[in-house]
Design brief:
single chain; mainly alpha; MetI-like fold; globular
């Protein structure tokens, strides 16, 4: 296990580096520091002197990858590539364009994102499994066909429809929940219930069909026919054999999502005014704060690689037949 983790870390470093090189190319080569300065200053104030002052204030005046004016290692460290990209590997995220410390912002916004993402994940998985079992139990019947068509309809509807519909009918018309906003402490519960319901409902169609496909695959395996030949009825086969074995791919899929909980939900947080990491990223894109965007891309890649590693470990733990080499 230890050697496997070491190898995965060694595999992850080149991937992280490649992603950061691509990000650096997009932010500093395709979109030059002069372009960033003009976007931040505005056309009326984009004089050559103002552009140079802005670049110097934000350390965008440095050469890209090699500083011929410096000496020794400073030829490589006093560059945009090192200051804005390689320094992310030390988790020194620096400051945003408005002068705020990005690390502090991440700490403050992680709580609201987790408060929204954790109940969404738990209730979403539970609801999807229940509906998947209903689809399995009534497969081939009229009720099963109707629920299958309902799942297809739910999959076809945009998430924005659920968000706007929930805000209009449940918040504005019924006055059951606040439309948007956030409060700390237990008062945050009032602002979380509606976004969680919207998130669970928007993913119900696709999630139920995916879990049903897993259970149907298990149902077609020989051990189910063997259990039926021994006298077990359909419900006993379903809950004694199919469901426990079907939880192996379900559990590994859930583990892969766990690191992404820290990233927050872009649409849900933005529309419901939740100050999490998702709305933080959207606001940074709208304000063209590329310091924040680069950090979020780096963290997202790192968490995704961590999720893949955790998935392999959990899969091995649930299925001893698979060994990590």
């Amino acid at each position: 296990m230890l050697w496997y983790l070491i190898r995965r870390i060694l595999y992850a470093l080149p991937i992280l580096l490649l992603v950061n090189i691509l990000t650096f190319t997009l932010f500093f080569v395709v979109n030059t520091p002069d372009d960033m300065a003009r976007m931040q200053l505005g056309e009326k104030h984009s004089t050559p002197e103002a552009i140079e002052r802005w670049k110097t204030a934000h350390q965008y005046h440095l050469p890209y990858a090699y500083n011929a004016d410096a000496s020794g290692l400073h030829r490589y460290t006093q560059t945009l590539f090192f200051q804005k990209t390689l320094q992310l590997f030390t988790f020194d995220f620096g400051q945003s364009l408005n002068g705020r410390t990005i690390t502090q912002d991440l700490r403050e916004r992680m709580g609201p994102s987790l408060a929204l993402a954790i109940p969404t994940l738990l209730f979403g998985v539970l609801t999807n499994i229940v509906f998947a079992l209903i689809l399995m139990s009534f497969r081939g019947s009229t009720f099963g066909k109707i629920t299958t068509q309902l799942c297809i309809i739910l999959m076809s509807i945009s998430t924005l429809f659920y968000i706007i519909g929930g805000q209009y009918w449940l918040a504005k018309r019924a006055n059951l929940f606040p439309i948007s906003g956030w409060q700390t402490g237990w008062h945050a519960l009032n602002f979380i219930i509606l976004p969680v319901c919207v998130s669970v409902l928007s993913g119900l169609g696709a999630g139920s069909r995916w879990y049903r496909a897993i259970f149907e695959e298990e149902w077609g395996k020989p051990y189910v026919r063997t259990a039926q030949a021994k006298g077990l009825n359909e419900w006993q086969c379903l809950f004694r054999h199919v469901v426990p074995n079907g939880f192996i791919p379900i559990a590994t899929g859930i583990v892969a999502l766990l690191p992404l909980l820290f990233m927050g939900s872009l649409l849900i947080e933005s529309f419901f005014g939740i100050p999490g990491l998702g709305s933080y990223t959207i606001d940074a894109i709208q304000l063209q704060d590329f310091e924040i965007v680069r950090v979020m891309v780096f963290i997202g890649t790192l968490l995704y690689l961590l999720g893949l590693t955790l998935t392999d470990i959990v899969y091995t733990w649930l299925d001893p037949r698979i060994q990590l080499h």
